[in-house]
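re: ur question from yesterday

yeah so i grabbed the chain u mentioned. its 340 aa long if i counted rite. heres the sequnce exactly as i have it in my notes:
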Amino acid sequence: MDRAGGLRFLTVLAALFFSAAATADRDTINWDEVDLAAERRAIENFQRYDQLLQNVGWKLAQANWEFCDRVMPATGLHLQDMASYGSPQIARRALGLSGDFAVQTVAEGSPADLSNSLPSNREIVGLAGINPNEWESQGPFDWRRLARVHDLIDEAVEGYDSITLDFKDNNVAVIASVPVCATRFELMGKGKKALADGRRVVIGIEFPAFQYEEDEFAALLAHELAHNLLSHTAWLDRNKRKRRNVRMTEREADRLIPWLLANAGYDPRAGKRFFEKWGPNGDGGLFRNRSHDGWDERAEFVEAEIHQIEALIVQHDKADWRTHFQREIDPHQGLENGQR
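ran it thru and got these structure tokens back, copy pasting raw so excuse formatting
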């Protein structure tokens, strides 16, 4: 998680998890006014949404890694730090923790999941021989320490190594890593936005697609993931965010949706269904912005890719979009000599 991701994460925690009693005076908490069961339910509700996001994001990123320019090792493990909450004391007590670090989610099918040792909220006291609880925190809403821990995990598995986790109950687990497309998936605690910044895909918890069928939700993630895989942020940085340029990148991301879905085992036509379901009742913004095609046109662009994708799946079991996908933009435009 980078700095911006940490800021969004603390916003999530501030928005969701604490009542006035919880945040009024963190040094002199009136425990009679704190509903610990409600605090825990709020945390677990956020985790349910995050679980879906991580499950689907993992499937897309792992199934398409061989076609990605940027690949990273990953375990599928996501942690939480009580210092990130509005009141670390209340968070600890609500989750029954003595320290600050515990499992947030593990992506379904990932090495972390297959270890069968990482249920949500299991307390962790060691990562690669280091106890992050010994690192100083800056108090409530401190996102920096959690960012540092996730960086530690990435460093530990660099070269596709495994990482050893030590639990509060004195048990140990060794978690392997596997290649994935280099993108992280993050959940915002409020809002309907969906965005990609080159390194992350960020989805607001109120985005309607959370209530859709899983393959339609996957289509939303695939669109945002496509922006990262096709390096759209960097291309727009070099060539300016003129309406025409943004529209080309949006169209390109739309057209890559069914390729990413098919490789992950989803119905590639789910991209078309997503636009048909979301577009007519959209609240403006994403689908009515002039920098985007109309939702019905976008559905047609997705559908136009299906025949080629299905033919490639029959022949090769995978749809190699790195070789066969037709770009809307010149990905090298704006690069100086020697940067390609």
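noticed a couple things. The domain at 3-180 is CATH 2.30.42.10 (Pdz3 Domain). also The first strand starts at residue 71 and ends at 74.
anyway ttyl
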